[in-house]
Amino acid sequence: MIVKKQYLKSKPVCKVTFKLSKEEAKNAEKVCLVGDFNKWDLSASPMKRLKNGSFSSTLELSKDNEYQFRYLLDDKEWENDWNADAYVPSPVSFDENSVVAV
Question: Residue ranges per domain, the chain?
Fold first, then answer.
């Protein structure tokens, strides 16, 4: 789930912290944050696994934009962020993509 948005005064970006609980991650060993911001590169944004089994990642995203994204669990299962700002149909599957607006 998107936990925090911090807008920087010094530049036109927003630091967005994404976090997936152990339960949301379905006890995955590895989670990658994949979306428009990294050209849907499956290995570009691995999330850090925390001691409690949850995963976290912070990205700087350009302000005044919307980004589609999903989480990839253990390189095989896609998961949405159920606290996203919006959802849109995926152009490549019958699923929806999560959207973060900054």
Answer: 2-101
